[in-house]
Amino acid sequence: MDSVNVISGTTRLYAVLGDPVTQVRAPALLNPLFARLGRDAVLVPVDVAPARLADAVRGLTAVRNLDGLLVTVPHKTACRVLADRVTGAAALSGSVNALRRLPEGGWEGANFDGEGFVRGLRTAGHEPRGATVCLAGAGGAGSAIAVALLQAGARVTVWDADPDRAGALTARLAPHFPGRLAAAPGHVDADLAVNATPMGLRPGDPLPFDPAGLRPGTLVADIIMSPRCTALLRTALEAGLPVHYGEPMLAEQMALYREFFELG
């Protein structure tokens, strides 16, 4: 059994920033990891409205026993701008989901959503190389997933409720992946259809796309982790389509977080 985290004056702090944070699963995974590793550390959720995000990140820089931040909806793109330095994948996606303190001060940003998503697919037996993917969402998580899928050898069509955002993502990435990325107004014939939008977090949210319009055998994936079986995935199952849940994307990021935050 894992030892229990005991918070004391020597405890190192990590925070996950979001709006809302009631759905975040990272504390339930990272705090047991800290305990298993014998790390005197704790991750707590921090609810920050977008209008106060810059103030919060600047303020947290002054907390000397705070070593890192995780970032969730809707702050991933904004935190890319607030980072003093970013990794290559984060620069391509234009978003971050993790920030670590730099020795000279400030933050270095990375985005592990995409690699975590692709690893989760492969662990479940779904190889993205050569697949045609329709991706709903060109925000922070969606942009990172698009990058990772393209790096894995997939062809990707991106849709977003904001067409300008989808267009900006494809314009940024197309030169790096010629002929394998396009923006489209909706989902087309695909091997994999992914929801990388927040649609489904709240009861009554509309579906990001209608699984009934997909061809038989299309894998439907949702990156939302709570609820586990979103309205999109329930509708896909009712239509006889295979589904891929959101939890593996985060679970597969644990090793990446360990390396990034130098947890041992």
Characteristics of this structure?
Rossmann fold; globular; 20% strand; 12 strands; 264 residues; 2 domains; six-stranded mixed beta sheet; 10 helices; 33% helix; six-stranded parallel beta sheet; alpha/beta
Any overview of this molecule?
With 264 residues, the protein is an alpha/beta fold. The protein has 2 domains: 12-111, Leucine Dehydrogenase, chain A, domain 1 (Rossmann fold), CATH 3.40.50; 114-249, NAD(P)-binding Rossmann-like Domain (Rossmann fold, 3-Layer(aba) Sandwich), CATH 3.40.50.720. It is built from 10 helices and 12 strands. The strands form 2 sheets. It has a 6-stranded mixed beta sheet. β7 (132-136), α6 (140-151) and β8 (155-159) form a beta-alpha-beta unit. α5 (113-123) packs across α6. The protein starts with 11 loop residues before the first strand and ends with a helix.
Question: What's the quick description here?
Answer:
The protein contains 10 helices and 12 strands.
CATH architecture grouping of the largest domain: 3-Layer(aba) Sandwich
- The sequence of SSEs as H and E is EHEHEHEHEEHEHEHEEEHEHH
Q: What are the low-pLDDT stretches, counting only 5+ consecutive residues below 50?
A: none
Radius of gyration: 18 Å
Bulk shape: globular
Major β-sheet, in short? Answer: 6 strands, mixed
Determine the CATH superfamily of the largest domain.
NAD(P)-binding Rossmann-like Domain
Number of helices: 10
What structural class is derived from the secondary structure elements?
alpha/beta
Helix content range: 25-40%
Average pLDDT: 94
